[in-house]
Sequence to fold (399 residues):
Amino acid sequence: MSTLALKYRPLMLNDLVGQEVSVQALANILKRAKDKGSIHQAYLFAGLRGTGKTSTARIMAKALNCDIGPTPNPCGECPSCLASLSPDGHLDIVEIDAASRSSVEDARNLREQVQTLPAFSRYRIYIIDEVHMLSKQAFDALLKMLEEPPSHTIFILATTEIDRVPDTIKSRVQIFPFRLIPVPLIDERLQLISTKELFRLTHDSSRLIAETSDGSMRDALTTLDRIIASSNTTEISEESVRLQLGVVPKATMLEISESLIRSDTKHLIILIDALSQLGIDWIVFWKELVVNFQNRLYSEIKSDATPQVILKWARILQILVSRERDIKESSLPKVIIEITLITISKLPNLAPLEALLSPSFNPQTSPDVRDKTKVSHTTMPDHDKGLDQLLKMTDGTIK
Ligand SMILES: Nc1ncnc2c1ncn2[C@@H]1O[C@H](COP(=O)(O)OP(=O)(O)O)[C@@H](O)[C@H]1O
Ligand SMILES: [Mg+2]
Ligand SMILES: [Zn+2]
Fold:
């Protein structure tokens, strides 16, 4: 794992970002365990990569075994807490990577191991990562253990693919969802970490990294690592982030929007060609385009535009969004992008698209665009029909 991701691995439940619901529920479980002296013995953390499952499993293990625990706030000083600082350093916390331990023999070993009493702690805790990778035999063995776990044993399972975990297992564990981390929270954490690392990350840079991380904090930190490593100053600009991420340069992005507005299909094709020479990431490009149009739609709604205008923007956005999956899955993403952009550029009366080029655009104060907006208001019914037809047409031919 990248240096920053390791260095900033959460050590307490409160350090986790964006997982409030699961974190709160786990904290309550720990408190109740202390009061009642008993605890459920099997948990399953499910969610996409880099959202905090392994970190939380380790935090739970520490919290369960702390001398003053079980507690949501382990002391950090007792022999158990100190041992859990180094991975593999704790005799009573056993981490198993299911991907590399899925044989029949491994299942048998595990069954024998589980009978072992804790060396010096309250519980012997088994963290089984990527549990969906276990073999059929290993799942059977695990099921037996979950049915009658020795009283000193706790299982914490984690998976990125909960659908591949058998229902029999799922019905015996408490399941905690780990959700995708929202962009603003990743953004905030990137800012916090770069300040600690004495790097200045412009706001646009951290936002861009957050947006391209697909809700994974680990992916965001790995990207930041790479960018810092390749930078020779302590100030990280948006352009250098774009370069590293294979994201379309801002100027080209603007030019593409401009060509869309002017229905300049020829130039659009030239620009897309140039991008393919640069080897940019098409998915990232598409996401940015979607975000641009989304912002435009929001600003229309905020400024109380007519329903027709709002609908028009929503429909363009709909076309863009509906193609994302095709682009991801196609072996010819560029072709899909070209067809879609050509279609949009030919949609009637795209004048208000100019707004995309100017973040400070305000339909109430911009006379040039206001006039064009008016035109689109008054003539909307016809255009609406045209749009409908175009949408039907594109749905039929591209999907
Ligand atoms: N929710 C989160 N809050 C803060 N940092 C996180 C979070 N999720 C992941 N990270 C960062 O990503 C790294 C990897 O997280 P990890 O817990 O191994 O994710 P997972 O097991 O879900 O793939 C951590 O060391 C940490 O730096
Ligand atoms: Mg993990
Ligand atoms: Zn402790």
Q: What stands out?
A: Residues 183-245 form a domain with the Helicase, Ruva Protein; domain 3 fold (CATH 1.10.8.60). The CA atoms of residues 91 and 119 lie 6 Å apart. The chain has three domains: 4-178, 183-245, 250-349.
